[in-house]
Amino acid sequence: MSTKPEKKLAECLMKRKALLVVRDSVEGFIKNFDNQDDVYQIPIRVEALDRVYSEFLDLHLQEREAFEARYCSAKGFLLMKRSTDPNQSALNASFTANNHASQAGFHLRLPKIGLPKFDGDLSSWLSFRDTFTSMVHSNADIPTVAKLQYLLQSLEEEAHKPFESTDISADNYSLTWDALLKRYDNKRYLKRQLFRALYDLPSLKRESPQDLHNLVDDYQRHVKALAKLNEPVIHWDTPLINLLSYKLDSTTLRSWEEKTSSADNVTYEELIDFLYQRVRMLNSVVSDLQHRSTQPG
């Protein structure tokens, strides 16, 4: 006849075995994952994995490290697939509604928000850093190994090259993130490079709506990045106007001078508004000329 401790141990072992069966089932699902047929099971598998993880840690503290590593790897894969599949937004909303029907009468279906991208362009670093930090880095619900996968997916071209051979493991996330910050998150270096980028923008040789639009967009992006670095750009009307004026084609510059010849003071924002209005006007003229050229006679 078994004693109470023996009976309790037997029950724990049976429960452990049942939990491991569920975990192995999820890992088998991942191993044979089919992007076409299996995406609809992801929310159910994530829920099962979370339940097993919680119950297993209550039973077996000694095996926590090994089990947690496999749990993070499995959940990271499922979350990655859920975030990249276009059909999952509607599925996730439906799954949430079925599990929390008593909490809400309706669910607003929002469009999918993609990961921010960073290709090494310093003018976009601050925006990328802040967005990624808000969406992923500071999100305690995302496993560390999944954060690394999201980070590597967000990096492109020059920014991705140093991390091409990074192994996917939880320990490598903080190393990769710190290396990225060390490479790009230097305020003095960023300011110097952004100033250089302003001077290096190409001067326009002819009147072109597309070239003018690109110039103003790039110039604005660099100025806004400097503002995020706490540079007092709102007081730089004269240097910003003069530098941008040197980049304009002769026809556009003449039009700007004619418009402001009687003004004692003009602002940088007035120049930007004028240039965007000119882009719209030039696009309209080009469209009208193209339409006329297709008409007979």
Outline the structure in words.
- The longest helix is centred in the first third of the chain and has 28 residues.
- The protein has 297 residues and is mainly α.
- It is elongated, with a radius of gyration of 28 Å.
- α2 runs antiparallel to α3 and α3 runs parallel beside α6.
Output the number of helix runs: 13
| CA radius of gyration | 28 Å
Number of strands: 0
Structural class: mainly alpha
What percentage of the residues does DSSP assign to strands (E)?
Answer: under 5%
| H/E series | HHHHHHHHHHHHH
Taken together, the total number of domains comes to 3
Helix content: 55-70%
The shape, in one word, is elongated
Distance between the termini: 108 Å
Mean pLDDT: 75
Main pleated sheet: none
Low-confidence residue ranges? 86-110
Give a short overview.
This protein is 68% helix and 0% strand. The protein is mainly α and 297 residues long. The radius of gyration is 28 Å and the shape is elongated.
Question: Characteristics of this structure?
Answer:
13 helices; 297 residues; mainly alpha
Mind sketching the topology for me?
Elements: H1 4-31, H2 42-59, H3 64-84, H4 88-99, H5 125-137, H6 144-154, H7 157-160, H8 171-184, H9 187-200, H10 209-228, H11 237-247, H12 250-260, H13 268-293
Helix pairs in contact: 1-2, 1-3, 2-3, 3-6, 6-8, 9-10, 10-13
